[in-house]
Design goal:
Strand order of the largest sheet: 9-8-7-6-5-12-11-10
Oligomer: single chain
CATH architecture of the largest domain: Alpha-Beta Barrel
Structural class: alpha/beta
Number of helices: 11
Radius of gyration: 23 Å
CATH class of the largest domain: Alpha Beta
Number of domains: 2
Strand content: 15-25%
Shape: elongated
CATH topology of the largest domain: TIM Barrel
Helix content: 10-25%
Length: 445
């Protein structure tokens, strides 16, 4: 078992524009994330009362719905066809190694039996703990479970909605105490990390809600509005479950105490979606790209813009070429079922991985970044050249290692190649696989 030692700063300093603000010290923590770097592929699930409205997980904000009106969903949300066994089996069929589930999204609804809010799954007609069912089934089937936890809350008055960018149209007028909200989050995280067995990680989202836009675009973190108490919260998580990985989708450089870096809708170092204002990629933390099968995270009936299986496999390959995991999302219907198109896509990816998984699982990123032509993954003395687009008759790449042998891995054709100095040229005559023609290169140790 590989363990990574993360020397957390004895005094965490966060920089705002023009001022430094000391935080509570973090303790040193050893976190085992070898499983994460082996996995390369996970299932993201966005599910909650918003699924009833079939218009995405941001519908409370986008409509907007007043808190009192939105609360009526607690009497309607009734996912009677939810089956944890089917969800976990689908993830396994897709070749995925972990599931990241929305324990709580920005509408503040808790998908578990929490003592700290009556706005939770137990008070719906369904009345059963979704996190509990999913956690138990993941443990039975050998799948890791990561819990998404929103830092934002459009429902509670003690969340600082007056300073946040979002949730201003939900009708809250009372201004609660921020310290109460921080304690509320600590209490809920304690429940999640105490009552549900091994939790592989906590996936935070929403710090960006309290960042002034000019600061975020300037790659500058500001605590002038809100102190999130991250050092305390991260220390609590590691105290309760020392190997629980912490990721925070704040779109900024990682903070001390975080164990993997997240890139939303983009590959590491890219910002095509506009969520990675700072494209800096950590050189020491594991990486993860999260993306949707269509365009939506939560279920949206009108969203029929599903990516093809080939597009999704290419995304997985390119993420692996950067040494990153792909966390691919589904938004189940209000019934608890995953829609047929997403189910089909996942199973087709799984069929591809059943044949070619050795080129993805447990690999590191290539010695050069992915390009239009494709990507390189590597493991031991093997280099896997994934030819995703055949634009020329040959492919010439920088290649510092001495090649011992090379062959087409998944097409029945002889491979012609030559190496001169630090370059190798492959003939692409045999690049006939309709999805991804793979060259297996063995290098001298």
């Amino acid at each position: 078992m590989k363990k990574i030692f993360l020397p957390l700063l004895t005094a965490c300093i966060l920089y705002s524009c023009g001022e430094k603000q000391p935080q509570t010290p973090l303790t040193e923590q050893v976190v085992d994330h070898s499983w994460f770097e082996e996995a390369r592929f996970g299932l993201f699930v966005h599910f909650g009362p918003y699924s009833v409205l079939s218009n995405g997980e941001w519908i409370m904000q986008n409509h907007p719905y007043h808190v009192n009106a939105y609360r009526r969903l607690i009497d309607i949300f009734n996912p009677t066809l939810f089956c944890a066994k089917e969800w976990v089996q689908l993830a396994k069929d897709a070749g995925m190694k972990y599931i990241t589930f929305t324990s709580r999204h920005h509408d503040g609804f808790s998908n578990w039996n929490t003592k700290y809010s009556d706005w939770n799954i137990m008070n719906t007609p369904y009345g059963k703990d979704l996190v509990k069912q999913l956690a138990e089934e993941c443990q039975r089937q050998g799948i890791k479970l990561v819990l998404y936890y929103s830092l934002i809350d459009w429902y509670r008055s003690d969340y600082m909605h007056t300073t946040g960018r979002t949730g201003k149209g939900t009708g809250r007028t009372e201004q609660g105490e921020w310290k109460d909200y921080i304690q509320f989050m600590k209490n809920q995280l304690t429940e999640l990390l105490t009552n549900y067995g091994e939790i592989a990680g906590i996936w935070f989202d929403g710090e960006w809600d309290q960042l002034p836009r000019e600061d975020e675009e300037g790659f500058c973190r500001s605590n002038s509005r809100v102190d999130w108490h991250f050092p305390e919260i991260y220390a609590l998580i590691h105290q309760l479950q020392p190997n629980a990985m912490i990721g925070n989708n704040h779109h900024l450089p990682p903070l001390p105490g975080e164990n993997f870096q997240i890139f939303e809708r983009d590959l590491p170092g890219h910002n095509t979606a506009g969520f990675s204002g700072n494209k800096e990629v950590s050189s020491v933390l594991p990486l993860e790209t999260c993306q949707t099968i269509n365009r939506s995270w939560g279920y949206r009936l009108s969203d029929t813009n599903h990516k093809s299986t080939t597009e999704l496999i290419h995304l997985l390959v390119r993420a692996s070429g950067y040494g990153a995991n792909l966390l691919l999302n589904v938004g189940p219907m209000a019934t608890g079922q995953i829609d047929p198109v997403s189910t089909s896509r996942l199973r087709e990816i799984g069929q591809w991985l059943a044949k070619n998984g050795e080129t993805i699982y447990g690999t590191r990123g290539g010695h050069i970044p992915p390009g239009r032509w494709g990507a390189i993954t590597q493991k031991g003395n093997k280099r896997y050249i994934h030819v995703l687009n055949k634009d020329e008759d040959s492919l010439t790449l920088p290649f510092p290692d001495k090649i011992e042998s090379a062959r087409w891995l998944n097409v029945n054709h002889d491979l012609t190649w030559s190496q001169t100095g630090d370059e190798v040229t492959f003939s692409l005559d045999g690049a006939t696989d309709p999805v991804n023609s793979i060259i297996e290169v063995t290098v001298r140790n």
